[in-house]
Amino acid sequence: MIEVRRAEMADLNWLEKTERENFSLPWTLDMFARMLEGGSYSVLVALDGGERAGFLVLSRVLDEGAVDNVCASARFRRRGVGGALVSAAAELARAEGLSLLTLEVRESNAPALALYKKQGFEILGKRPGYYEQPREDAVIMTLYLKEAQS
């Protein structure tokens, strides 16, 4: 069973290493350290059998949240890590009274697109050339957390 908890400073080196192993333009140790200080960021860590398996970064502006990064370690992919992280982020966002969560995902990342759709995210559009190395469009997706007020 996958458990999700808030990241701690003891996770810092693992976060940076995992990021570097999985992304062509990785975030730095300093970036993660600032995120762990709190403020408008929450970093969640997924544990599979007690072992760190993935992480998610959630940021906030006013009453809106953004999933800035989701990463499952290579050997834990296809085991529910991403789904557990996204579910935990949505639960946290609802508890904080956020109205929506938004994210961008590479247009070619079919597994991630399927995961986000399964979690209730809707496609809103594209950001042409959003990603680098390689250059690729991003699909913009949003999960609405509150009913529209009339």
TrEMBL record:
Annotated InterPro entries: AcTrfase_RimI/Ard1, Acyl_CoA_acyltransferase, GNAT_dom, YpeA/RimI_acetyltransf
Domain N-acetyltransferase: 2-146
Catalyzed reaction equations: N-terminal L-alanyl-[ribosomal protein bS18] + acetyl-CoA = N-terminal N(alpha)-acetyl-L-alanyl-[ribosomal protein bS18] + CoA + H(+)
EC number(s) reported in the record: 2.3.1.266
Protein family according to the UniProt entry: Belongs to the acetyltransferase family. RimI subfamily.
Annotated function: Acetylates the N-terminal alanine of ribosomal protein bS18.
Protein name (database record): [Ribosomal protein bS18]-alanine N-acetyltransferase
Record organism: Candidatus Scatomorpha merdipullorum
